[in-house]
Amino acid sequence: MKRQVALLKHASRADILESVRAFETEMTAAGFDVIDIDSGANFSHAELVVVFGGDGTILRAVEKTRECDIPVIGINYGHVGFLAEAEPDSLSDLVSAIAGRCWTVDQRMTIDVVVRRPDGTVERSWALNETSVEKDASSRMIETDLAVDGRGVSSFKADAVLMSTPTGSTAYNFSAGGPIVWPNVEAILLVPVAAHALFTRPMVVGPASELDVQIRADNALVWCDGRRCIEAPEGSVINVRRGAKPVRLARIHNTPFSGRLVAKFDLPVQGWRNRREDLP
Length: 280
Description:
- It is a single chain.
- This protein is α+β, with helices and mostly antiparallel strands.
- The protein contains six helices and 18 strands.
- The chain is globular and about 60 Å long.
C-alpha cells in the first residue's frame, strides 16, 4: 500500500491554496497518496497530518486527529505560529523530511474539562491550550470561588479565569500576564483576568492537581481553545484536570524551546550573548 499523508488547510487564502497544490505535487512525486481531511475521506492510515494555516487551524486539526493518534505538523501562515514547525518557504524541506521519516513526536499535555450545572446536567470537553471561563454577554463580571484539590483558595470577581497547559502558556495565558512554561513541564496554570481582589496572582499547580471554579454569581461561558463553548449559569462548577489523552505534534527541527521563544517573539538577546563571550 502506498504511504499516505493527510492535510488540512485554511481555505480562504490564495497563497495557502497555491502552497497546497505544490505540496500535493511534490508528495505525489515522492510516492504518497495525499488526503484532504475536509473532503471527508478516510485518513486513518496517514502517517502525518500537515496543516497549512496559523495556530487556529492547527487547533482545528488536533480536534480531528486526537482520537486516532496521528501526529500533526503545521506550516505557519499565521502571525506568531507557536504550534507550527515549518515556514512556507521551507515546503520542499518538509516534503523531504516526511519522505525520509525524519521527524520526531512531542507528546503535549492536554486538560479535560467538566461543567456541572445546578440543574444536574453535565458537559465535557478538553483543551490543548487553555480553558477560559468568561462572563457572558449579559454579565458585567463573574463572581467565582476557586478551589485546588477540593480546598478553597480564593474568591474574586473577574472578567475571566484562564486554566492553561504549558503548551498554552504562550497563548491567551501570555497575553493575560501568566508565566511562560516549557512544554515538557507537566503542570496546569491558572490566571485571573482583570480580577477585583488582593490575591489574584497566577498559580501553577502540579499535573495531579484538580482545579474547580464555581460561578457564585452571574452567568459564564466556558471556552476550550476558543473553539468549543459550554454555557455555565450561576451555580455551575467547572472542573479542570490533566487530560487523559495527549496531543501529538511532529517536529523536524531540534531547536530547543528557548530558541523558538526568541524567534517567535523576536526577543532581544544580543546583550546576553556579548556577556557570555566575555566570561572566562
